[in-house]
Amino acid sequence: MGTGMSVSSNKKLNYLTWRMHKDLNADEVKRWAKGAFYNLVGYMPNLKNPKTFNEKILWYRLNYDSLDLRRSVDKVEFKSYIKEKIGEGYTAELYGVWSDEEDFTFDDLPKSFVLKSTFSSASENIIFVDNKDKINRNELLYEMTEWLQPWNSSSKSFSNWYENSTPRIMAEEYLECTTGALVDYKIMCFNGTPKCLFTVSDRFKEKYLDFYDLAWNRLPFKRKFQCSPYPSPPPKNLSQMIEIAKLLSKPFPFVRVDFYEIGDKLYVGELTFSPGGGFEPFSPAEWDKKLGDWLELPI
What Pfam families does the database record attribute to this sequence (predicted)? Predict the structure, then answer.
């Protein structure tokens, strides 16, 4: 993309995946997902009696549903949910929401902002604009047309969480840390109890991912990305993060509560219900079972 914004998308994969399983029944979707699981994780999942974390997350995607969860996966409704639970000021400021890219306007937006689909996932369907005067606006509008397609909300979910939901475009505050790169703090909550967390650092470069227990002892495993050469210092507001995560996770069997810390201020970035989709192996593999033991599913 043009100077001044950072883009990530995978349009072709999303479309092809959507075409492959949009007309499948529940059993066919389950078998398709199990095949994907085998190819990515390395073993066949048992969804009748799931034991590992990855197996349980896949079961969760295929079988669990709730109104609070559906609200929380929509990036706009999520902000309302957070406000209801813990009050104002914990999410990035919302600048605007659009259902049609032709209604979108740059004029009322600040110089820097984040543009995303209301159903953005991980680094997909999100653009970080650090200077709107330097971006290629036509390219940006082209990106937005793709975000509003149905395959960009539910193509890889294997769930009903996005059923009858309409993807929209949203612009929100660009969060920056003046003392260095912004670090993600992601607290994993099992049946309403925070159990561990991980940090994501250098997210626009090499991207390191490090797991810790709640006392900030580094845990000896990795998932998807390499561990950083040196452990990070704990955030100043770790205890407050844990308490907020406990409140937000209470309604759900599993949720990951994602935070940013800027100075003394905490932001909740999002709630994530299927991290890695249940498709990311652990190294060593024994940690897949250890984390799985923490999660009790409503089977």
Answer: ATPgrasp_TupA
Kindly report, residue by residue over 174-220, the tens digit of the pLDDT.
998 766 678 889 999 999 999 999 998 765 556 788 999 999 999 99
pTM of the entire predicted model: 0.89
- Cβ pair 256, 186 in contact under 8 A: yes
Residue 299 belongs to some domain of the structure? no
CATH assignment of the domain containing 26: 3.30.470
Other Cβ atoms closer than 10 A to 182? 17
Structural domain that includes position 192 = 5-294
Place of tokens 């998308």: 9
Give the residue from 200, 187, 261, 263 showing the smallest Cα distance to 232.
200
The half-sphere exposure of 254 on its side-chain side, counting CA atoms within 13 A, is 26
